[in-house]
Amino acid sequence: MKITCSGLSYRYEGPAGGPAIDGVSFGVCQGEKIAVIGPAGSGKTTLIQLLDALILPERGDILYDGQSVKVLAKARALTGVRRRIGLLFQFPEHQFFHETAYDELTFSLRNFFDLGEGEIEARSRGIMGRFGMDADALKRVSPFVLSSGEKRKLALASALLSMPEVLILDEPTAGMDASGRRELVKIISGLSDTTVIIVTHNLEDFLPLITRCLVLSRARLVADLKREELPGSLDALRRAGIEPPLVLSVRKKLEEEGITLGEEAFEMEELLKEIRLGSNRDKSPIPGK
Ligand SMILES: Nc1ncnc2c1ncn2[C@@H]1O[C@H](COP(=O)(O)OP(=O)(O)O)[C@@H](O)[C@H]1O
Ligand SMILES: [Mg+2]
């Protein structure tokens, strides 16, 4: 699904005043992997609620494959779009309310799609298998007894069961330990055809998988950068109130030294590998000399 936002603005009711999203424009093609970053209160959550059509823009519009969100809303036809978008709220485990983890997993699929029990079971087994969890065991436990990493995986699996074209995640690694974060990032990296939009304070976690980064500051989109442009945009990030991940500063320094780096070297391990390779190349005897 192609999504086009043009001049998007949104203001909450109440005396607070200023808009939470102000004149934001960008487009998203199917399969893109985008990080949305910005300081607390910059409008990230509001933006993804607009993208999921949970709230409607006050000004501007969102087109889903050319269809206006405003027109769809008037015609009471938003369900079709929402079904194609999976949304994972911040701390999704706080919204668990089913008796078994399996019911929690399959709830939205059961409610929003007309599928037989066999299909629901097959999809559940498939996805939980990929996540290293046993779908049948989930029928016997409460979702609340799962570990925090398992709870987050259950919520993500639940969003993926309906095979959304677009997956939107609000701070998916918040409150998780390093190994849980790595596992989640690995799962998200495997969603090659799905559009993934990730709101995050941990940009470094997602650098290996994103293609692009949107930067919000005080309700405005202040930068829309390809991943390879990030090392050259550290000052822009700082101006927006974001301390850039160390790996970007290191990459920038190496680029300034004239060292050519592989496109994939956006995590420290990969950078170190490339530096080692480079220094070995320097040491190796040059034939004929
Ligand atoms: N339900 C709400 N009612 C009134 N103001 C809100 C509400 N939700 C968010 N805001 C305000 O809108 C602005 C953007 O908030 P939000 O989108 O949650 O930012 P972020 O996710 O980047 O922290 C903030 O100033 C916030 O206080
Ligand atoms: Mg938020």
**What is the architecture of one domain at the second tier of CATH?**
3-Layer(aba) Sandwich
Strand content: 15-25%
- Alpha plus pi helix count: 11
**So what's the overall shape?**
globular
Rounded to an integer in angstroms, the radius of gyration calculated over CA atoms is: 21 Å
What structural class results from the helix and strand content? alpha/beta
First and last CA, distance: 57 Å
Q: Work out the number of β strands.
A: 10
Each distinct ligand: adenosine-5'-diphosphate, magnesium ion
Spans of at least 5 consecutive residues with low confidence: none
CATH structural class of one domain: Alpha Beta
Order of helices and strands: EEEHEEHHEHHHEHEHEEHHH
> CATH superfamily assignment of one domain?
P-loop containing nucleotide triphosphate hydrolases
Main sheet? 6 strands, mixed
What is the residue-averaged pLDDT? 92
Proportion in helices: 25-40%
Strand line-up in the sheet with most strands: 6-7-8-3-9-10
From the 3D structure, determine the CATH topology of one domain: Rossmann fold
Summarize this structure briefly.
With 289 residues, this protein is an alpha/beta fold. Helix content is 37%, strand content 19%.
What does it look like?
The protein is of the alpha/beta class. Among the domains are: 1-84 and 199-243, Rossmann fold (3-Layer(aba) Sandwich), CATH 3.40.50; 245-283, no CATH class. It is 37% helix and 19% strand. It has 11 helices and 10 strands. The chain has helices at 44-51, 69-74, 79-83, 101-112, 117-130, 148-160, 178-189, 203-206, 234-239, 246-256, 268-283; strands at 3-10, 21-28, 33-37, 59-64, 67-68, 85-88, 166-170, 195-199, 212-217, 220-226. The chain has a 6-stranded mixed β-sheet, with helices on both faces. Strands 2-1-4-5 form a 4-stranded antiparallel β-sheet. The longest helix has 16 residues, at 268-283. The termini are far apart. It binds adenosine-5'-diphosphate and magnesium ion (MG).
